[in-house]
Design brief:
single chain, 739 residues, alpha+beta, Jelly Rolls, 3 domains, 5-stranded mixed beta sheet, 5-stranded antiparallel beta sheet, 23 strands
Length: 739
Amino acid sequence: MFKKINFLNKGSLTKRRHFLNGSVLEYLLVGFLFFILTTIYTNWILFSINSSIFTGQPGDATAGFLWILFADQDLNPAWAYTHLVNYPNGEQIGSPVYVSWSLLLIPLWVLAKIFSPIAAVNIMTMAGFMLTSMSAYWLIKRLTGNIWVSFFAGFAAAFVPYHIMKSSAHLAYVFSWVFIIMIAAFYAFWSNPTKKRALILAIAVAIGFYTDGYYLLLCSVLLATLVASGLLYDLIFVKKVNVLKQKVKLLVLTAFTLTLLASPLLLVQLFMGSKVSSDLADARGNIAHELEYYSAERLDFLLPPAMHPVLEDQKWFQDAQNFKNRRSNVSENTLYVGYVILGLFIAGMILALTIAIKKIRQRQVSLEQERINFFGFVSLLVVIVCMAFMMPLTETFGGYSFTTIPGYMAQFNIAFWRVLARFFLPMHAMMVVFSSLVLAYFVYKIQQRSSGNRHLLNAVIIIPLVALMAFEYATTFNRPTWSLSKVPETYYWLKEQDDISVIAEVPMSDPPLEYSSYYVTSQMVHGKKIINSPFATSESKGIRRLQNTLQDPETIEFAAARGAQVIITHHQKCSNDFKGVSLIRSEKSKEGFPQIPVSLNEHYLCVYKIGETYQHDEFFLSAKRGFNETNYDPSGATQLSLINDTATLEVDSVNQEHKEAYKVGSVSFKLLTTPRFTPTNITVRISSGSKTLYEGEFSGTTDVTLENVETNKEITVKISSNAPIEPNQISISNAKVQQ
């Protein structure tokens, strides 16, 4: 049934294969070359595969898939549960939303069991670069037969700065090979529509659906754009109605097959869609704001990456980077296409236009010109559509303001898709494919006019272009690896303390989630349970915003009630002045671990032992809704600011039975205004249900005490003044509940 191939036979290795448009040996050699480049571009993580990871510091790369692989001791990766975080309640590691990451999570889970979690992430990071480079090489080799141009395509597709910035941290966004095989499957189908190719197109799209949640949107839009542009092209240039009808019929088969392949995703949305949306909403901010914040601007595509080793010290370059970074961040706005690709793309569009004019005038064109015309037409529409999704919520053209596609999407408040700059991935893949075809065409035309050695001519043209592109894409030299050896010594000391099983780390604030990223990263060293949680869906999410530092009245009580034996603080100088705890270890922590709030500019790391006889209250005040930033006063106490004029608090307890037993308590906190907030006639009304608990005027700072508060009802704080309340103008501090 299957033809037996002996790959050890020299003839089998060197024989040309139709599917490859080359030999197995050729692909092995090219693959080895891309493997060497991948090793270099990932900063040699191959040689410390179990200890280093290709990222600058702890964050998404260490607290995302990597930590989940570490914490998952279950044999079921989809529904694993752990008590390592949010102790004693624990957290569900698995989520219905993870079905859209299946093609990443399953290999990661298997590799982690065979090797280690860090090795698994490193292997998959390198696999992303390899798959992208080899898929681009294969597609261009199939279309042109030119080894040199195919290598150019593989390099351009894989080592673009966006991939370098995304590697490990957002692992899926190195897997651009998904879009390349989609383009390949589409072209194969469109050039020769058959049932088999219609099915292959559906499978190619489905692969994207199960790679990443964003790829659901990116692949759907790319497929729709490819099909629409193909139909439009045929109507303009081909004008064969029967062929067009056949394609439409087969596209129905593609759609039906894709629906079947996507049925697990549809079932999750049908039965668990509300939970998925709720979980994502908890982890996101204001969706409309983030759609605007993470939009793209023209400068993003034209300015070389921030870590460029030659340009980074130039003042004009840094000024341009600072201007670009006034919104979004380096990870999301490094959308540099490169002037080599951009130049070839523009030249290709001009070439495609001249060919299109020939076709409209019914002049004969070659097969290569026909391909340039088709890919040019399709690429132009793909770029336009992708750019349309990356725009801000509104744009102005010719003096008229209009709502963009993201602007309309914002009305639906879809928490799943908020960073639409990621449409760069299919756009860049399409541009690389078209630019490579254009380069192959120009090289072919030069060869026709030259009598010299064909490979030498290719080398003279392609090698300088690849070198120039490598210079453009030069980011990896400033993209360091990060290792667990950089974790402070205190965490290695904790690992050896058998009498300590549960710890609390402060600040406990969420947001910023950067703290939790550092805490769970360090957990991979010490292995202890922590009361902190990296999950925004944690049931005690709001509590930690007011129980945040040792200066906050309830922090030590909260940690003790959750079962912590020690509390680790960051930034503040170590002291023995805190009631209920004693200092047992101190360390001057390494710079940047964790990220330092502006007002807490010390790098100290202190370990406090909670007294065994420490008496703690089971009640705590939880910040439920209407709160924004976490700041700190000069003493280090938390100041939690309001988004506007209304916020909601709730009396909570670690022990639900305790909350049911004691239905009334007293609440106290401090209301503050920022120095820049100077309106007069400020009044505050605090109520619970229909009952008014407090009402009066205040300015500057006001101590509030509420008696006989029903613990099962929310507390609403309403601020009124003669001027609108802007975000971060009013804060709450020193919150405490007593039974």
